[in-house]
């Protein structure tokens, strides 16, 4: 990937994100306006704000990502599926679900796969499914195992972090995840992504989507703060 990646080609990598619990309607309107102006792939908002974002972005080509089982991933599969179906009906085009980290670390791999597969089936033909691994809580072996599970279960992407857990996106983890899933799946880097140099390094390592709240600053060549 060229280090000269910039402009519209760079902006198209971003899920422009606002997931703070104190996010307001005016903040969502601003987020959507920035996404339209810059040509970001999607906005990423909490489920409550999906209908508002859908209204703001109608006809623009900017997608709407929302988060499911967020930020812990420890809700039941039934609840995750219901949440995802409601979000899709409200206008979400991409679903970022949180993997059940505790189940994974307990060796309950079949349960984790069933959880992801149920979401993949709920999203099929209606929305892309990204699975948040929360890599800061996992060993490298667990990251590889999680990636294999997500691939078998039919997810479209694996994703590094919620932004609410320890750590965030690193070049090392993106390279590991890309190797684990191969070329068929997307890999989303999120958590602590705040400057253009980091974004280019993550893309070079295999990221095909970037989640950031500092998207506007980053595509402008600056450094931002936040998720």
Automatic annotation (TrEMBL):
InterPro entries: Aldolase_TIM, DeoC, DeoC/FbaB/LacD_aldolase, DeoC_typeI. It is found in: Cytoplasm. One of its GO terms (molecular function) is deoxyribose-phosphate aldolase activity. It catalyses: 2-deoxy-D-ribose 5-phosphate = D-glyceraldehyde 3-phosphate + acetaldehyde. The keyword Aminoacyl-tRNA synthetase does not apply. It is an enzyme of class 4 (lyase). Pathway: Carbohydrate degradation; 2-deoxy-D-ribose 1-phosphate degradation; D-glyceraldehyde 3-phosphate and acetaldehyde from 2-deoxy-alpha-D-ribose 1-phosphate: step 2/2. Keywords: Cytoplasm, Lyase, Schiff base. The keyword Membrane does not apply. Gene3D superfamilies: Aldolase class I. Signal peptide: none annotated. The active site is at 96 (proton donor/acceptor), 159 (schiff-base intermediate with acetaldehyde), 188 (proton donor/acceptor). CDD domains: DeoC. It holds the Pfam family DeoC. Its EC number is 4.1.2.4. Belongs to the DeoC/FbaB aldolase family. DeoC type 1 subfamily. Catalyzes a reversible aldol reaction between acetaldehyde and D-glyceraldehyde 3-phosphate to generate 2-deoxy-D-ribose 5-phosphate. This is Deoxyribose-phosphate aldolase. The lineage of its organism: Bacteria, Bacillati, Bacillota, Bacilli, Bacillales.
């Amino acid at each position: 990937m060229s280090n000269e990646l910039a402009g519209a080609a760079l902006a198209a990598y971003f899920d422009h994100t606002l997931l703070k619990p104190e996010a307001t309607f005016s903040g969502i309107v601003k987020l959507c306006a920035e996404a339209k102006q810059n040509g970001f792939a999607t906005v990423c908002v909490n489920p409550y704000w999906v209908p508002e974002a859908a209204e703001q972005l109608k006809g623009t080509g900017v997608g709407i990502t929302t988060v499911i089982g967020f930020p812990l991933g420890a809700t039941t599969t039934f609840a995750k599926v219901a949440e995802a179906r409601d979000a899709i009906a409200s206008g979400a085009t991409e679903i970022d679900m949180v993997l059940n980290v505790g189940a994974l670390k307990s060796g309950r791999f079949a349960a984790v796969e069933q959880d992801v597969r149920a979401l993949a089936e709920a999203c099929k033909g209606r929305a892309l499914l990204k699975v948040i691994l929360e890599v800061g809580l996992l060993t490298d072996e667990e990251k590889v195992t999680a990636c294999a599970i997500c691939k078998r279960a039919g997810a479209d992407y694996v994703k590094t972090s919620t932004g609410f857990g320890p750590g965030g996106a690193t070049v090392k983890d993106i390279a590991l995840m890309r190797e684990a899933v191969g070329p068929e799946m997307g890999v989303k880097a999120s958590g602590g992504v705040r400057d253009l140099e980091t974004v280019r390094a993550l893309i070079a390592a295999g990221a095909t989507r970037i989640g950031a709240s500092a998207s506007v600053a980053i595509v402008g060549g600056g450094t931002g703060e936040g998720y």
